[in-house]
Give the backbone structure.
Amino acid sequence: MQQPPSLAAPRLIGRSPAFLHVLQLIARMARFDAPVLIQGETGTGKELAARAIHYQSARQHGPFVPVNCGALPETLIETELFGCERGAFTDARQARAGLVAAAEGGTLFLDELDALPLRAQVALLRFLQDQRYRPVGGARECSGDVRVIAAASPRLDALLDSHHFRDDLVFRLNVLLLELPPLRERPGDAALLAEHFMAEHTRRHALAPRRLTRSSLDWIARHAWPGNVRELDNRVQRALMLSDGDTLELSPHIPFALSGHVTVVTPSSVAPGALRSFHDAREESLQQFERDYLQSLMQLADGNVTHAARLAGKERRALGKLLKKHGLERRG
Ligand SMILES: Nc1ncnc2c1ncn2[C@@H]1O[C@H](COP(=O)(O)OP(=O)(O)O)[C@@H](O)[C@H]1O
Ligand SMILES: [Mg+2]
């Protein structure tokens, strides 16, 4: 699975003391060719920070290759990372290079590192130690000139406590640890980012410029932002598309599944002559609510079912079933 080409050097928005400290760390980490571990809640900008380190580093002209460890099936991940030799599987007619080879001279970004299966952790550890690896199904050794930047949302101590994660890999990776603060701990940044996303999306959709209302600004400062910058971006986009005028209202009476969704009773369920049974009307509303909620939830969680379950306060299995019922299970 080849990743789409990398975007260029990102612009990082934020002026809070916590975020300025992050920017300083990024600049320092770019100067040294060592692995980096980025920790932060979903949507705090882990991938963006990884790109920033890459594009400020001596590897900036090499590739930036992002891999989502949680999106690849366990049986495929080693092949994806390290490639395979001809005949490694019945259908492997040709040797195939992996993403480590694709990142040669550049940076490999391993997102959702905590989802990496144990076997692949061993291979990665070995690669980090001596920059050597074996493609699946062969004895041949390859070497790669690749900087690894990994990201995880569980905190480091949780990773170290987990039986599914090798401590030696954590120690190897966290020589340079970059902790991204949640948006609620970055005073002033949410409003700044809201302005930034508003400008970006009005430009993209060729809309007239708009201003945030006073109540939006108050609400932005009070909201806890469980989905961090990604949630903010989604809310701004949604509000822009669903309303007109020269101001923009972000506060939660704009229907948003995660902040108390109001199901609108459709006229057909109450119109005289077309009145359906209470049971049918309720069932339809319920299905609609579930679909809307799950779509917003998965958007907020960036398609990660484990994060989504945590955000929604549901068990992962139960959430998986619901997603399946609505045809929203993740692919890949
Ligand atoms: N400081 C920032 N400035 C501008 N955009 C940001 C910033 N932080 C995050 N974003 C945007 O928010 C979204 C989520 O960021 P991402 O790096 O994917 O988060 P994570 O990998 O931590 O879930 C992306 O669209 C990203 O471009
Ligand atoms: Mg991410």
In short: The chain is about 45% helix and 10% strand. Residues 278-300 form the longest helix (23 residues). The first strand starts at residue 36 and ends at 39.
